[in-house]
Amino acid sequence: MSDLRQLYQEVILDHNRHPHNYREITSTCCKAEGYNPLCGDQVTIYIKLDNDIVTDASFQGKGCAISVASASLMTEALKGKHIDEVKKLFQQFHDGLTLNDDSHDLTELGKLAVFEGVKEYPTRIKCATLAWHASIAAIDGDTTPVNTEQDDV
Ligand code: ZN
Cα(115) to centroid of ligand 1, in Å? Predict the structure, then answer.
């Protein structure tokens, strides 16, 4: 394993052990749940918006290290972003993981690059994108829980 890959893995394991923003936001417009039955991941996302800017983001849930670390890093990444930027970031993250070509990767996405290695494990990609799907649902006011096996995600 390369040093970089090892560092990425350590970041993921660290966020899994000590997730950031692991709490409920009670007074918020935006909340959505996500399930990934293939792996057993469950997540609830809370997003607070002010004039379409994310002023706070948090999550609760349980699942594998990738799903928890992804939710943790995502809530960090979303704060201060306009909802249009959130959607663009999600698209870049999603494309970076699912489109296996040289023009799409995660290197431009700051800390989210730690999920680069997930590409090699296609069954785990939904673990990494679950929190993002739920966030988009939350922002769009879609209250139906996201299910990675039933929805076109
Ligand atoms: Zn998982």
Answer: 13
Can you give the pLDDT at residue 1?
Answer: 62
Measured in Å, residue 27 CA sits from the centre of ligand 1 at 29
**What separation in Å is there between the alpha carbon of 124 and the centre of ligand 1?**
6
> Which segments in the chain show pLDDT lower than 70?
1, 152-153
50 Cα: distance to centroid of ligand 1 (angstroms): 31
Q: pTM of the full predicted structure?
A: 0.94
> Which residues, other chains included, contact 45 with Cβ-Cβ below 8 Å and sequence gap of 6+?
30, 31, 32, 33, 34, 57, 58, 59, 71, 75, 131, 134, 135, 138
